[in-house]
Amino acid sequence: MASKDEYKSEYSEELTNFIKTPSVPAPDPESTEYGVRSTAYPAIKNAPLPADAAGSESFNNYVLFALLGGIPAYMAYKIGGGFKTWVFFAILTAIPILMVFWTIASGYTPRKNEKARYPGAPVEHYLKFHKEADRAKYHGRSKIPMETFHEKYFDGDVDFNGDALEVMEYRHDWANFRFTLSLFWFFLTGMMPEVIMHTRSQDEEQVRDHYDRGDDFYSWFLGPRMIYTSGIISNINEEETLEQLQDNKLAIVCQKIGLQAGDRMLDLGCGWGTLAKFASAHYGAQVTGVTLGRNQTAWGNSGLRNLGVPEEQSRILCMDYRDTPVPKGKYNKITCLEMSEHVGVRHFSTFISQIHDMLDDDGVFFMQYAGIRKSWQYEDLIWGLFMNKYIFPGADASTPLGWTVDKLEGAGFEIKSIDTIGVHYSATLWRWYRNWMGNREKVEAKYGKRWFRVSLMPTLLLD
């Protein structure tokens, strides 16, 4: 097995032209109290305004269902129609009712948490609009819908007044999270058909269009480890590098599954194969990585060869997860780090059952995924639709924790432990943001300003 030093040297040999993550900008000397406790930890980007937008403890569908059934019933009654007439009006009015209900609810629902005080600065304090019509429409306390903002930002019609991340930290002061017509259009014609279908060809097309964009594109924010999932902080009072965060995570995953030499390990959605290399080099595990990305497959297998890991021991396979080969005796360990979201809600139960069937009787399954809060917040939905449209098409299985646990237990798994790593993801994104900004000229030169801006936005979602 490779030593730790040998393992790290492999990165420097395989990858070149990586920048050192830019240092943390000098803190703002001004200190303002917003009515809530703030933090000052070196490991993370400390939010100056930890606030929530509109939402409720849970999204109550009773009113919505009453409207969906009651309005067509009233219309059928007024013209003397029966059940068939009600069905006709129900189909005819469903989409308009949904649009009106969600527009009103997203615009007038009170804030989820009233403890934090917004600064109350005008919109122009935060944003610089380049069109007179936009300057006239969004000024003072006339907030801009977040979906409208990010579309205008991608098109170059608006810029941040100052550092993008700092301005986004105060987004609740200058943006609202109302539903817009274009958001409805994407939800109904883009996301919903994908949720319903989620075919093999759709998954393959979406994954390859995204992950085969170019290894350089991802290297400019992921850094030498090429890991597109959250790292782990080991000490909140120290600023560890991105590479340290990812090394921490690799070690923790292997420790949690009790990895041993000779274990048959499967890594579903293995990305560029970094975990497969780590497990092969440090533990002598026999690792099979599965990904739909062609570039990732080539990269991962090249890394294994550079480490001296024979193909008979470990390999990366380019295939759909549904076609994963199962060795004699099944797998001892299976990991799935932020790939299950791509499976989709429709196929999630089948996916978990497949994993259960591929494990031996004493096998261990480790899953890491990015979910949403059960407590309903329109901001979460707006960002979720944005991510589905631009960043992770088809990744609709970002679900509340309880839903996921229910599916795991339903498939026969016994839950051993659960960790919430949101703050660790925040720390990871902060470093991705600084890398991306540090490589701005390279990105814009090859992929254009629009793609730089589109891919910048997810790194700003730290809270």
How would you summarize this macromolecular structure in one to three sentences?
It is an enzyme of class 2 (transferase). By secondary structure, the chain is α/β, with parallel strands linked by helices. It has helices spanning 4-14, 62-78, 83-108, 123-126, 132-137, 146-154, 164-169, 171-174, 181-197, 200-211, 215-222, 242-256, 274-283, 294-306, 340-343, 345-358, 378-391, 401-410, 422-438, 440-456, and strands spanning 127-129, 144-145, 158-160, 175-176, 264-268, 286-291, 315-318, 331-337, 359-368.
Descriptive overview:
One of its GO terms (cellular component) is membrane. By secondary structure, the chain is an alpha/beta fold. The chain has 3 domains: 4-20 and 201-460, Rossmann fold; 62-108, no CATH class; 123-176, no CATH class. The protein has 20 helices and 9 strands. The longest helix is centred in the first third of the chain and has 26 residues, at 83-108.
